[in-house]
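Go through this one:
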Amino acid sequence: MEDIIKGKPLRRRLHFYLLLDNSGSMAGAKIAAVNRAVRELLVLLGDLENEELIEIQMGAIRFGSGAEWHLPPRTALAQSTWTNLDASGGYTSTADAIQLLAAELTPENLGMRNIPPVAVLLSDGFCTQPPELYQEAIERLNASPWGIRAVRLAIGIGEGYDKQSLDLFISPYLRRGDAPIETLEARDVASIGRFIQRVSTEAVRASSRSKSSTTQEDLPPVDLTREDLIHAISPDDVF
């Protein structure tokens, strides 16, 4: 019998964002590891598009002395090319980066029905802006229909980062329960690439299998656990 089902399968769209610290403390091997990891991540995400039958759109924010889009939001993965970051920022404007993300995660930009976006924040230090500005940014993100449903994860590098503040960036529904997800710790330069790639791909995979819209009230919108992340990275290097 002739196959009458033709055409490409419909793909749901997933928006993926990186928030990357490029302050001066990231200079040298750290920022080189980040650049290498992101370039390799683009290839891995391309594989996931086909595996999960999704369409990924990218965006990346760099933050040091201020914050700005390094890769414009909603760039199709196939058109996403990575320009290396440098670590030239004198400060760490994490609050500004979160405000940029919150402004992006609106129904006007992402639509009313979509799979939850994924955002991964990476930093090796403390936000140098006033604490009240950081809290305002977190509250704005949590008040956004897509911000509260997003898979938001944080990676801290080394031992000098502000775990308490990075934990606040993580999706509130992922921080609840008996085994809350906390900031993931990349303890050395050698582990930075593995963390960026495996945390990002695990979050994208989990989100791609969810069903969500801005009109749904039930949380959590995405089934992602601490154990999932431990398995994706390694049991010795996560929390």
In short: The two ends are 55 Å apart (CA to CA).
